[in-house]
Amino acid sequence: MVRIGVIGYGYWGPNITRNFAAATGCEMHAVADYSEANRDRAARLYRGLKTYSDPLEMIRSSEIDVIAVVTPLSTHFDLARQALLEGKHVFVEKPFTSTSAEAEQLIELAEKKGLQIMVDHTFLFTGAVRKIKEYLDQGVLGRLLYYDATKVNLGLFQHDSNVVWDLAPHDLSIMDYLVGADPEAMVVTGAHHYSGFEEMAYLTLYFPDNVIAHISVNWLSPVKVRSTLFGGEKKMLVWNDLEPDEKIRLYDKGVDVSNQDNRSGIYDLLVSYRQGDLIVPRVESIEALKTETQYFVECIEKNEKPFNDGVSGWRIVKMLEAADKSLKQRGGVVPIAL
Amino acid sequence: MVRIGVIGYGYWGPNITRNFAAATGCEMHAVADYSEANRDRAARLYRGLKTYSDPLEMIRSSEIDVIAVVTPLSTHFDLARQALLEGKHVFVEKPFTSTSAEAEQLIELAEKKGLQIMVDHTFLFTGAVRKIKEYLDQGVLGRLLYYDATKVNLGLFQHDSNVVWDLAPHDLSIMDYLVGADPEAMVVTGAHHYSGFEEMAYLTLYFPDNVIAHISVNWLSPVKVRSTLFGGEKKMLVWNDLEPDEKIRLYDKGVDVSNQDNRSGIYDLLVSYRQGDLIVPRVESIEALKTETQYFVECIEKNEKPFNDGVSGWRIVKMLEAADKSLKQRGGVVPIAL
Amino acid sequence: MVRIGVIGYGYWGPNITRNFAAATGCEMHAVADYSEANRDRAARLYRGLKTYSDPLEMIRSSEIDVIAVVTPLSTHFDLARQALLEGKHVFVEKPFTSTSAEAEQLIELAEKKGLQIMVDHTFLFTGAVRKIKEYLDQGVLGRLLYYDATKVNLGLFQHDSNVVWDLAPHDLSIMDYLVGADPEAMVVTGAHHYSGFEEMAYLTLYFPDNVIAHISVNWLSPVKVRSTLFGGEKKMLVWNDLEPDEKIRLYDKGVDVSNQDNRSGIYDLLVSYRQGDLIVPRVESIEALKTETQYFVECIEKNEKPFNDGVSGWRIVKMLEAADKSLKQRGGVVPIAL
Amino acid sequence: MVRIGVIGYGYWGPNITRNFAAATGCEMHAVADYSEANRDRAARLYRGLKTYSDPLEMIRSSEIDVIAVVTPLSTHFDLARQALLEGKHVFVEKPFTSTSAEAEQLIELAEKKGLQIMVDHTFLFTGAVRKIKEYLDQGVLGRLLYYDATKVNLGLFQHDSNVVWDLAPHDLSIMDYLVGADPEAMVVTGAHHYSGFEEMAYLTLYFPDNVIAHISVNWLSPVKVRSTLFGGEKKMLVWNDLEPDEKIRLYDKGVDVSNQDNRSGIYDLLVSYRQGDLIVPRVESIEALKTETQYFVECIEKNEKPFNDGVSGWRIVKMLEAADKSLKQRGGVVPIAL
């Protein structure tokens, strides 16, 4: 029985708690939060749940196996480090840490202690991402040419970070999972009007073989958009996460190009366009977080590394650091070393 | 009576011809095209139309006042220059010229000869752009914070230029018309898979006061998108050009920010979000090209410069040159001097 | 403090319970359900909640002021009658009763006992319906010409009634609330393929002055549709309940007709079409059931009849009876006497 | 070479003329119209076209093989009859005639004279209808359970007929073509507010085996809708004719029902819902009228009856007559004898 302690019962913590509570092989043991109101809210919902006002006290409890860190970014490192030092597995909210150096320390520490880290890249567990992964692995799309994501809406401004650190981790983690290659360099442009932090930003990531990814994030959009294009050599796919039933659209569209001698004797491109049927596959609609928390429990039982482990979290932090560096240069080309 | 000669009766030329033929105060006099089939097509539709296989012969005709250059980009400069030298006003397809130096020569020549140049930035004459211009001029949107356009579809590849020169001139000219300020620098990223020319590209333009514009163009998208977001301080607007009846959506949405002393004694941002009604104004649906050609006839009659004159065309070419320069550096920051 | 007892904790009962539990001036006292699993589910969520396996025992409890009947239709009458006999106010799920005679008995009984009945026509408390009511009351739409609703989806088949009794009560109650007149006659057509109960049906209701209502209900539609058109003399409105943010669209469209002498000397209609702006008003998004349960508590405190009282429930049952009668004649015209 | 004479060059006539002009094996010979302006418009577009102010004179011409009657409904019978008497094949706008008796006369006359009649049910030649027909013939949908069409918009009022005669012929002809069975009875409800003619109407048609069709037509809708649901036992299909690229959606959805002994010992229905992928097939996008006119030319060359012949036109007129009869009874059940 894997026993869980959750730090932070504000906005996202209740979801983490609810899903660990429902997972099999697992006991939702305690919640720590500075706010009494939050602790009360948790206690009312879960019979027998312990609550702590001091997270460190909970971390030291011998009745807990896993610490879930669901707190503001600036506290991730200290809390996760303490948890690992006390022999606890850790589940950490995204982004993993404020710096890649911190991430490296945590990974090393977990390694030494034989503990698991999972970074909460929830979207990797949605039915949509799993379906797209399946298509890519089976070669349905052919070679991936580009990835183009838009994640915009009105608010909610973060007070201690720009829109890249707030909204892009989702798309970066999905991209990292699906593209299956290391980005080599990054160019990020953006602007801010209300604070010192960018409220909108445009990220370009260069991969080998001319593969390109683009991510648009914006806190100042009147409309909410959550959509991603995948351009494959064989097929193309659009994922619209706001669609209730038709999240994925698989287009039998593409370009066929051949070089050939044209009339004037000069080699030229002959381009033709394939325009076939569109398929909207049925996508499983279980809650991603349910799958993810259950998976973490199983990883701990089997003592296996989750695929969304500390290294996976570190990769995203490396990209976020590169993004900030590029933003400071108003869009300079910044290499990424993964 | 302004007499028109059109060079090029391929894809776009028939539209230009049809609209000059319908304009008042104007006579659609002749068409020049190397292809006999094209000349025949034109002659069948318009009674009394003269046709020329040699454009230069038509340019020299004393029965013509205006030459419309509706040919591939590489020929714009020579044909327009000949026309101006022969004392003809010119109407030139977008983009104006292959280089800004060429554009400057043509502008100077027209100035010296007292002739008018119009560059065919058709979209400026759509009901939608005129309505948005009206909103901006009346202060409905408040100060413009950003402009974010997406213009993607499958094909048609151009064989002699990248997607920026093909698709971006529309959005650059609209942006230039509506933002009403000079962009200071540009960052462009992109990729190509089938030829030496980028098939997708992402343009960021920096304006004074943190105003930013972003334009996404792509020949490899399975879906056709023609949409633009305008973020204003007071209101926000989405223009979807593919909507038959509801092209413009004006959102009473925005952000109100005040600095204030929060409980912990630290100055902090207090952000609130306005979410009011949405208005979809009725937009006039006359053909843009009809308005544009009629306007050019009137400019010539009154000997007035059109607002989409040579300088307006030159500005777009300057941006396209900057885009190419930035693309070559994989996204370097390139200043634009207008 | 109004004390509530809920009978039925299956599909809809938990929502009723949750909202009474959250209402002010009210105590969620007890739940009755034959199923032990359902009773346990309720008891786990609400501290101190009493549970009963026998609804009649709960009805007789002196610690309860209101009985909410959230059970299958065939049991509504008996349970509500018992509750009224025991001096309890009743909140009854829609449709109110299986026959209008039953509804009449309950209304009479409540009258005699000085008790309140509320029929759960939840939709009347949505932000959308309230906004439309406001528009109609303010004369924004002008005289209402027609009401046209579509409520279709795949499943869920009811086993003891046709699609009319299952899906139409929503639209009939909304129509009855908004049209503000008594329908005079009804024509209903329909078909069944899988059981003896119609799985799809089309209802026409005739009102005075040529006002017409049409309601389409279908359990066999591949797509879910929840949309209603309101044709007014001045403006027209479309309500799409599946839209997350833009439920109501108010069109400045209409027809202006004048009789006039045409050229041939015969009086003729001159018809012109108004096509103005579209407004999508912001609609309050609080949970309808929350408003409704709070309102019932207040009605009881003030000893006032709710507008969705027994009579309002009886009207819908009268229409459902007429619908069944028309269906049996494959669409005969059946008068409705309200 | 089949020589064509078109009567009526107003709204639809130019389309008929243009397509016959482009058809192979065919000569667009003459146009008759009372209006000089219309005749001039035609003459300007087609070199060598003859024009007549008197349609009867054109009908008598020995240089014509086919008369296309593209005039108001009330004139169809007389013109088509004259044409047949003069030995001409006829192409008649929909609806075929004002009464079924007229249609019968024309059919008989054509039979006697060995001439062909085609009724212009254009939609039968669209890529969408052909694709749906293909699906139905191949058994993709399984047995058809229902047909449900909505064809509504604002205007254009006809001055001499109700909305049923104006808008329903399209859907009735499509239904008649696709359902492949004879409707047995009809129920039509409707209302009028501006004239003596119904501006909105709801048609139900009963077919054998509980198959049902419903058609909603409305001149007073603020939104334009052109959509049809096809409920099949195996699959379900939605055709939205306003979608530019995705007109047809084929849903792998349906209901599986089995009777079975449930726990309480009573036979009950066990219903399960299939929810599979959605396929949006590529639909050919050639102009329907082009296919139709070419097909008529070929029918005449081969002396074969078109499938949209006089009898097919007569069937629709019979249904329209039944509709009017039902409307007069405010929705009585009217048998249809085909």
How are the strands ordered across the major sheet of chain A?
Answer: 14-13-12-11-7-10-9-8-15
Structural class of the helices, strands and pairings of chain A? Answer: alpha/beta
Helix percent of chain A reads 25-40%
Instruction: Please tell me how large the radius of gyration of chain A is.
Output: 22 Å
Instruction: Specify which chain pair forms the largest interface.
Output: A-B, 52 and 52 residues
Outline the low-pLDDT stretches of chain A.
none
In CATH, the architecture of the largest domain in chain A is: 2-Layer Sandwich
Number of helices of chain A: 9
Overall shape of chain A: globular
Structure description:
The structure is a homotetramer of 338-residue chains. The first copy, chain A, is α/β, with parallel strands linked by helices and 338 residues long. The first copy, chain A, folds into 2 domains: 2-115, NAD(P)-binding Rossmann-like Domain (Rossmann fold, 3-Layer(aba) Sandwich), CATH 3.40.50; 124-285 and 318-335, Dihydrodipicolinate Reductase, domain 2 (2-Layer Sandwich). Chain A has helices at 13-22, 36-45, 55-60, 73-85, 100-113, 127-137, 163-179, 288-302, 310-328; strands at residues 2-7, 26-32, 50-52, 66-69, 89-93, 117-120, 144-154, 185-191, 200-206, 212-218, 220-232, 236-240, 248-261, 267-280, 334-335. In chain A, strands 14-13-12-11-7-10-9-8-15 form a 9-stranded mixed beta sheet. In chain A, strands 3-2-1-4-5-6 form a 6-stranded parallel beta sheet, sandwiched between helices. In chain A, helix 2 links the parallel strand 2 and strand 3. In chain A, helix 5 (100-113) packs antiparallel against helix 9 (310-328). The radius of gyration of chain A is 22 Å and the shape is globular. The relative contact order of chain A is 0.16. At the A-B interface, strand 7, strand 8, strand 9, strand 10 and strand 11 of A face strand 7, strand 8, strand 9, strand 10 and strand 11 of B.
